[in-house]
């Protein structure tokens, strides 16, 4: 019997099945700017309607949250996570997402699982007026075990050059407003999985995996609702490293984000993790978003309007003078 690619562990037919299952749905994310369709070597996107456009790009993955999904055999939310981790980053600069590409790697491809993951991306793209214009599926036996998957993505957005938000306009007295997260989002799951070993256990009346797999919140509509009405000085996406690592990325020298951590509405699942794992509060805030998925920094004169525009947002601090870029008061 002669050797074939399939005998080496790669089933091309399963890849074709995946494309068949996602092709129509992916096409529904396209608009007039998309000049070609799935199957080309490259994806074409035409830009128009901007005076001095700047492209803003971001790439990320889902991390070991994917392990929770695989163990629980729940795949529909992971694609949303992948898109959100990329798109929320470019929102920090005032960009609107234009298009998204994905990368899916596995040991042995199952077209049902792959399609479910990609269809989650499709849903997220639709919600963000973004086109899913391409991707890559890599079946790599020997590199990954059967049943293992990894997911990553790449998002490109656009903003007028004179409307870029980069934190340089942040000044003393500006207010820091929190936008709640939907949970852990896609960060810190190596620690989450160490403490929560049984994803089937009941938590607040449902299997734990349902709470852990709530997808990362998409902030496109909220952020652009605000920046269309208010001059925003800075935006930070609170991902790995929590408030401690992400807020200082937009704070200039001589300024400090002074935050009253007692005002932060911490999700019950995070409090349970903290208690069960005997984790110090400072470690929690240095690992997880702790209920704050994004923050916006605005002049105090605009703070009330932001709170009015965003029903669930709330103020957690202000910008002060200081040598440390962040000061969390517990």
How many β-strand runs?
Answer: 12
Radius of gyration: 21 Å
Approximate strand percentage: 15-25%
Sheet with the most strands: spatial strand order: 8-10-5-11-9-12
State the secondary-structure class: alpha+beta
Q: What gap, in angstroms, lies between the N and C termini?
A: 69 Å
Work out the helix count: 11
Shape summary: globular
- Helix share bin: 25-40%
Overall pLDDT, averaged?
96
Q: Tell me about the biggest sheet?
A: 6 strands, mixed
Runs in which pLDDT lies below 50 for 5 or more consecutive residues are none
Q: Topology as H/E string? A: HEHHEHEEEHEEHHEHEHHEHEE
Give the SSE map.
Blueprint: H1 12-27, E1 53-61, H2 65-72, H3 78-91, E2 96-106, H4 111-127, E3 131-139, E4 149-160, E5 175-180, H5 189-195, E6 202-203, E7 206-207, H6 208-212, H7 220-227, E8 232-237, H8 242-246, E9 255-260, H9 268-277, H10 281-285, E10 292-298, H11 303-309, E11 314-321, E12 326-329
Parallel strand pairs: 2-3, 9-12
Antiparallel strand pairs: 1-4, 2-4, 5-10, 5-11, 6-7, 8-10, 9-11
Helix pairs in contact: 1-4, 3-4
